[in-house]
Design goal:
Keywords: Lyase, Magnesium, Metal-binding. The chain is of the alpha/beta class. The chain contains four helices and four strands.
């Protein structure tokens, strides 16, 4: 949490693990309480509504490139997330993964 608090450009990525775990309430409560921007993966869509004001799907590429701390909720850093590597991700990004 300290990394997220100190982040200048934090980003939450919601993946299929959050959907499979039926963690909608917990993830929505977290996004509401922290007011962090989030990006759903293709399989994480629907955990938090796409029309939520913190959803940054239209700016996906820019958000990934600029984020200095990424919190993965039920997501993996695989080919769909470009393995967390530049140029898609900030070269200095710190990634926190919650399974």
């Amino acid at each position: 949490m300290d990394l997220l608090r100190k982040a200048e450009r934090p980003l939450v990525i919601v993946g299929k693990g959050a959907a499979y775990a039926r963690a909608e309430k917990n993830v929505n409560d977290f996004i509401r309480a922290t007011d962090l921007p989030y990006l759903p993966t293709a399989m994480g869509k629907g955990v938090v509504p796409d029309d939520h004001p913190n959803c940054i799907s239209p700016a996906r590429s820019l958000a990934l490139q600029k984020a200095d701390v990424v919190l993965l909720l039920g997501a993996r850093v695989n080919w769909m997330l470009h393995f967390g590597q530049p140029p898609r991700f900030n070269p200095n990004v710190k990634i926190i993964q919650v399974g």
